[in-house]
Amino acid sequence: MYLYILAVHIIFVVCWMAGLFYIVRLFIYHTEAQEKPEPDRTILSKQFEIMERKLWYIIATPSMVLVLAAGITMLYIDPAWLQQPWLHIKLGFVGGLLVYHIICQKKMNQMAKGIYKWTSTQLRIWNEVATILLFAIVFLAVLKDAVNWMYGIVGLVLFTLIIMSAVKIYKYFRTKK
Predict the structure, then answer these.
(1) Mean pLDDT of the region 60-68
(2) With bands split at pLDDT 50, 70 and 90, how would you rate the model's confidence at 75?
(3) What does the buried/exposed string (b/e) look like for 118-155 if buried means 16 or more CB atoms within 10 Å of the residue's CB?
(4) How confident is the model at residue 167 (pLDDT cuts 50, 70, 90)?
(5) How far is it, in rounded angstroms, from Cα 112 to Cα 33?
(6) Are residues 100 and 20 in contact, defined by beta-carbon separation less than 8 angstroms?
């Protein structure tokens, strides 16, 4: 039974992450649509709001709930996992992903009210936060205690620097046109 629940957990992690990645991409397009002249701005904004709402409430949030339900069920079936230090750190990163999810929902609600606090560049950087959390969670789940924590932290910091540099380089070439 445990392996079936693990499979469900992995499937819905993929769905949840796809939703988180795509929602922020929609936020970027939605924000950039505000620079368009009327009536394009209004037409695009209304369409992005529909797409964001459907993605959020049909895919991202239900997937998150199923990920959490499967994870809790696995811990119920095998509570010995809770004795593993790597799992505590992984759960900390999962907590970070839950906060990320909540912030995305607040951002979606703000945009639906016509409030755009972040630029498209800030949103592109925000999109990479989910990538960094995903890398940390997957490496911890796969390697468990086999990884030296110092190497793991250094690797995560280097990966973060590479991702953020890529966003800045992309902005440079995008605005150079």
Answers:
(1) 98
(2) very high
(3) bebbebbbbbbbbebbbbbbebbbeeeeeeeeeebeee
(4) confident
(5) 13
(6) yes
